[in-house]
Input
Amino acid sequence: MFIHAPLEARKARVASYSLAWSDREVIKYIKDEDRRRSDYYNYYTGDDWRDAGHFDISLDSELFGEDGCVEMIKKALPLFVRE
Output
């Protein structure tokens, strides 16, 4: 599953968690986290983490919101669970 959003939406979300950070610090945090996630994903899969084509589900959290993404994941989960 790949959940993504445009940079401006991500900046607003991160800034809401730490109001003391400057715009520059928020962007640095986002880039550092993206690099960490990308390195981890690439290490274990050899694939590009940013390529949503490697995931069964890709959701835009700006479009659907956090609650909307959660609802879609809850509805899709039974389709992926094998008994």
